[in-house]
Amino acid sequence: MAKRAGARSAVLDSPPALIASASTVGAKEGEGPLGKYFGSVSEDSYFGEQTWEKAESRMIESTLAQLYKNSRLTPKDIDLAFAGDLLNQCTASSFGLRNSGIPYFGVYGACSTMAESLALAAMSVESGFAGCALAVTSSHFSTAERQFRMPLEYGGQRPPTAQWTVTGCGAFILSEGEGPRITSVTPGVITDAGIKDANNMGAAMAPAAYETLRTHFSDLGRTPSYYDLILTGDLGAVGSEILRDLMRKDGTELGDKYADCGLLIFDREKQDVHSGGSGCGCSASVLAGYIMDGIKTGRWKKVLFAATGALLSPLSTMQGESVPSICCAVSIEV
Amino acid sequence: MAKRAGARSAVLDSPPALIASASTVGAKEGEGPLGKYFGSVSEDSYFGEQTWEKAESRMIESTLAQLYKNSRLTPKDIDLAFAGDLLNQCTASSFGLRNSGIPYFGVYGACSTMAESLALAAMSVESGFAGCALAVTSSHFSTAERQFRMPLEYGGQRPPTAQWTVTGCGAFILSEGEGPRITSVTPGVITDAGIKDANNMGAAMAPAAYETLRTHFSDLGRTPSYYDLILTGDLGAVGSEILRDLMRKDGTELGDKYADCGLLIFDREKQDVHSGGSGCGCSASVLAGYIMDGIKTGRWKKVLFAATGALLSPLSTMQGESVPSICCAVSIEV
Fold first, then answer.
1. pLDDT, position A1
2. Domains of chain A (ranges plus CATH)?
3. A318 touches chain B (CB under 8 A)
4. Each residue's pLDDT tens digit, A158-187
5. Residue A4 is nearest to which of B54, B131, B314, comparing CB atoms?
6. In this predicted structure, what is the pLDDT of residue B274?
7. Contact B313 A87 (CB under 8 A)
8. B310 to chain A nearest CA, in Å?
9. Hey, is the C-beta of A303 within 8 angstroms of any chain B C-beta?
10. pTM of this prediction?
């Protein structure tokens, strides 16, 4: 039974464990500072397929194959999957899990989808709804770029605030077994700071991250000092600085406990990614690769994973709308 | 605590109640056989807005206003919202709930989204994650038509197997209070019958409905006779007949206990909707309007709500893919 703590967060009495994880990224992500932490790096952005959309689904399938191997489980052992991605109608996930036979709930929280998936998977295991649950999310630079921005062939210039969609996939299996545990969940509320520039999603998402972090600390009576690492999804350079500022105005210094997946995954000086990485696969692959490694090796014992998402569409931007954003946080503890 | 029954279904020990419901539809749906059962009928397909996408979000907002009135609750009383729609990046929901301040989980199951939302909302209440949860889904004929098919001005011909996307929204509040209860959940697996005609989604979705119904009956040791009403989402005329056939081959006659929201909502003889209605708002508004009325007035005591969704996108169809489908079932009992 999860108990509601304060206004919004839930503390899990029988916290489910992340018993296995897997990650796949593309070549550019493999060349970045975290390259060696990913389960697999594909040199082929098509993953052997004819289109990038099919490639993204194939990347999910190969990440799941890795996950089954790591966990010594088969799809039949998994009671429930929570999956999502950035493609219209979330087809990377539906096609990626089409042949798995795993009961499926599609979720959409833009780049916050991995935190949402982990939150719901944890809830399903703790409540006995599922013995074993899967959380998997993905993104692909080339599918996202042509869907949200321009055809790649167009070679459009990107402003300095823009982020680079990560080609990557991260997946976790949750159950009552051994491993770091999801001990609490703080779901996000939609926050709209009025930003209308779809090339500055860090600025749009930072207030959502601030709102969720503030609520999390308040609900649980914690300060950042409780955690070894506070990790946002993909605010990038612009959004991270805004988040630090917003917290500072509240009297909270995030300091060097704070990191952002979008900043960790690329070397901004060498890799021409402007403000950093983004996409459902960014925080998912960083968490499943780099962070899980750091938890296993004892570098971090208490991690707050606060993934952020911009809940816009190209059409909402064309219709003059601002960018509603959200941040869902889950605490992961050894 | 939910107990897993059989291979996939969960039976809820403390089944949450649907303590309030609300529905809004467009003019055409208001003129259909169920017109008088909807909470509100809008003669204006723009709902006072300048674009159909903004109209769909406005329809959600007005349905929620109706829901708050019906339940005597305010947004502050609601701990968690599960919401989804058909628009790219689910923006009808994210913009529709942008100002609500309700903690938000976006979900995507195409036209099965209401069943998914109810399943997750029930899980969240039963597990103590939320005291009070909201499930809301919508669709709009004009947003769907131009996104999935052709500009409305084009006036394209539709084949007889095509369905008419319902302009509608349905919403429920779940809590421990009084009302019909969600007593069990059978999540769906993705089923792909190889149908490549995106204008024949009934045929694509029927095997998914069959798979989930068969699993539900088997897991819970029930036959159709247990229920007063077995309701699929929107298989339409073509899909409903295929479902009946598939069940018959299994030795199960659905008979007159079976109905389909896509067939109920329109008069196919008079309303030119070809195979029937569809969309996230179809089963949502029919359930929140007509079915809730029938439960309240004692017409039905045990209803199996099995909403179906086609997990395709226009791009997946253009790339030659078949239509993966899913069906999630929840039983609602007095």
1. 52
2. 2-175 (3.40.47.40), 181-333 (3.40.47.40)
3. no
4. 899 999 999 999 999 999 999 999 999 999
5. B131
6. 94
7. yes
8. 10
9. no
10. 0.98
